[in-house]
Every structure is written in C-alpha cells, then in structure tokens.
Amino acid sequence: MELVCLGLNHETAPVEVREHFSVAVEQQGDKARELMELSNVTESVVLSTCNRTEIYIGTEQAEQGAKALYEHLASDHDAVEMQHLYQKVGSEAREHLFSLVSGLDSMVLGETEIFGQVKQAYQQALESGATKGLLNKLFQKSFTVGKRIRTNTKIQMGQTSVGSVAVDLAEKIFGNLKGSHVMVIGAGDMSRQVAQSMLSRGASELTVTNRTHTRAVELAEELGGSAVTFDSWEETLTAADVIVSSTGATEPVLKASQIEAVRKKRKYRPLFLIDIAVPRDIESGAGEIEEVYLYDIDKLQMLASEARASREEQVRICQQMIQEEL
Predict the structure, then answer these.
(1) Of 35, 168, 231, 255, which residue is most buried, by most CB within 10 angstroms?
(2) What domains can be seen in the chain, in order of their start residue?
(3) Does the predicted model carry a pTM greater than 0.85?
C-alpha cells in the first residue's frame, strides 16, 4: 500500500483559488468516503482549513491512484487552478504531514489550531469508514509527533495563531485598541480567540452576531459583550472601529455598498476589517474605500513571516525530531 498527498496551501495558491477547493468542515468525512469510489483509491482523509486543502489517499499503486484523484479534481476545476496543486508520495508525504501537525507548515509558525483541525479531519474520515491500516497508523503517529514537538521545543513561543496576529495588526493600524468598538461576525473558535485578544488589549465594547443567534448570545455573555441578530447587524457598522469576520458562508456577508451607505454617519472614521474566513466573508471592493483598511488571511502572512526569522533554531530542532520519528 502506498501513500499519496495531493493539495494546495497558502504558499502555492492565493485565497481566491483556495476558496474554490475548500470543503466545509462538516463535509470532510463524506468527501473522504466519496473518494474511495475512485479507481485505485482504497482509503482517504480530506483536510480543509483556511490555509489549505489536502487529500491523503492509500493506493496499491501511487502513480495510478494520484492520476485518478487528479482527474477527479480536474472535473470541477479549470487548468489554471489545477496548476496550484502539489503532489507528495511516500516518505515525502509522511514528512509533510508530520511537519504540518507540528505547526511547521503553517502561515503562523507553531500555531496550535492545525493540530486540532487535522485530528478532526481524521476522526471524520475514520467515522465515515474511509480509513484503513495505512492512514490509521499514519495519522495516529502524526499526533504523537506533534505532541512531542510541542512539549519539547519552543516552537510555540510568540504568536501562535492567525487570530493573534490579526490583533497585532490592529494595534499597528490604530496605535492601540483602547476604547475601540469591535464587532465579530461569526461565533466560532477563531472569532472567540480574536475577541478575547481584542478585549485584553483594551477594546471597550464588543458586539457579536451569528446566523444562529443563540451562539452569538453565548459568546457575547461569555466575553461581556452584546449580541445582535444576523439580520440587523448592519446597524452596528456606524459604531464599529474593527470588524472581524469568520463565518462559513459561501458568499460575502459584508459588501462595499453596505459600508458606503454608512460612511457619512460614521463621519468617515477609519474602519479596520479583518477577514479570516475562506471563502472570504468581506467583498474585496471594501478595501478600496478611502478610510477602510481590509486585510484578508493572505495579508496576515506579512506578520507571520516576522516570527519565522526568530525561530529558525527551533525549526531546526523540530525537523531533526521529525526525521527521528520517520
């Protein structure tokens, strides 16, 4: 049995391409099971996050399995998009997964979210019956490697998530967040993390909205903010200084026209938009408005790269551990 990994990430593809390949979190297991119907594919795990979509398969013959998977993806994507894919086979694929789970392949070096995201993707594939001996052993081993590295190195020092980097960027834009009004669209884990960081850095008011209103209320109560229904959050645009959006929507939830409509009421105050969703939540045209600063998840990589330089030694130690585990 041979291992093949086919995917794309923040280094090989821009966000507008990644969002076309993204798979909803709750559909990862079903997608993995679906891929087993392809010729030469005997097991599968599908991983899809803001920064990547990767498919791991077990196959009797790597070349034929990879070809079947590639052709399957090509049926839904054009040739230009397919050029962004990378392929890893055998030991290269194993090393890639170990590096990924350890946080070495992330936009923010050492970030912790990816460990849980890979676990979730594997668990869904397992529960759907899409994994067998090869991928079960591989992914279980990868979690052991990730735990060892996070326990015995300092790779997590400094910023460890896209959310915390976004907060740093907000402070660079405004000088500080003292007295600012933050609106969070989406009540998931990433939204919670960013909101907590914003409040700890001085934000004085928090408004939360979510399609499921009860979740918005829960998050707002937890953090001492207020919740508004998803069909009335536009009213908050007038007061907000920072908007953080991270939903699972397939179309933009915040459009340039909505901001244009309240510019006069806002007295043309600066508005900082952080879009950490894939597909993107905020229409790109919003960033063209004079007093609006829009950063999507790709732009956050500018700050992430700063952390990488200071952790080169830790990366070397981690890579040595991975080689030992391989």
Answers:
(1) 35
(2) 2-157+315-325 (3.30.460.30), 162-303 (3.40.50.720)
(3) no
> What's the rounded Cα separation, in Å, for the pair 25 and 153?
30
Are 54 and 5 a contacting pair, CB within 8 Å?
A: yes
Q: What is the tens place of the pLDDT at every residue in 120-177?
A: 999 999 999 999 999 999 999 999 999 999 999 988 766 546 667 778 888 888 888 9
Lookup: tokens for 49:
């996050």
Dist. CA 129–CA 119, nearest whole Å? 15
What does the alpha-carbon distance between residue 91 and residue 223 come to, in Å, rounded to a whole number? 45
**Among this protein's residues, is 5 annotated catalytic?**
no
Per-residue pLDDT tens digits for 258-276: 999 999 999 999 999 999 8
